[in-house]
User: Which sequence fits this backbone?
């Protein structure tokens, strides 16, 4: 969009502030009409022949666009990924405490990534890690669903759970 000082073509197709087509007029005449009414002459379609110009309050239009953009951002729901770190030899109380946190994350609508970290000889206990992940999936059966099943990546194993529709 270009405002009236930058319009350099001899004739334009003019649309007034009530969206009525006024026809093809000279650019100077369109600028005079805009000054009479006290609003801006804005070029809305520069590539057409002749270019289309509209009489409008450009400042108000920009303000309205900003408001619409803000409303659309407010309505968006950004999915947050929270992480809960575990170890294969985790005690039952510690595991339950971490699962309590994960439950809160799922209830708020966030995804939860469970990460099992292995050090040294703990790599021998991959079966124990799968047991813990199975227990977690069973524990959160009604609250969330396993989005990415448990898989090993080097010295860590991860599983991602998303909140189920019933939990939301």
Assistant:
């Amino acid at each position: 969009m270009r405002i009236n000082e930058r319009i350099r073509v001899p004739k334009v197709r003019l649309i007034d502030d009530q969206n009525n087509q006024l026809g093809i007029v000279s650019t100077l005449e369109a600028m005079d009409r805009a000054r009479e009414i006290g609003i801006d002459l804005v070029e809305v379609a520069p590539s057409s022949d002749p270019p289309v110009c509209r009489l409008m309050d450009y400042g108000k239009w920009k303000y309205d666009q900003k408001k619409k953009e803000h409303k659309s951002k407010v309505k968006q729901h950004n999915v947050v990924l929270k992480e809960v770190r575990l170890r294969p030899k985790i005690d039952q109380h510690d595991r339950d405490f971490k699962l309590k946190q994960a439950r809160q994350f799922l209830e708020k609508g966030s995804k939860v990534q469970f990460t099992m970290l292995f050090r040294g000889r703990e790599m021998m206990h991959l079966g124990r890690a799968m047991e813990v992940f199975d227990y977690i999936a069973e524990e959160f059966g009604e609250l969330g669903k396993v989005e990415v099943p448990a898989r090993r990546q080097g010295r860590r194993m991860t599983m991602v759970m998303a909140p189920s529709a019933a939990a939301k």
Summary: Residues 2-73 form a domain with the Ubiquitin-like (UB roll) fold (CATH 3.10.20.80). The chain has four helices and nine strands. Residues 13 and 48 are 9 Å apart (CA to CA). The mean pLDDT is 87.
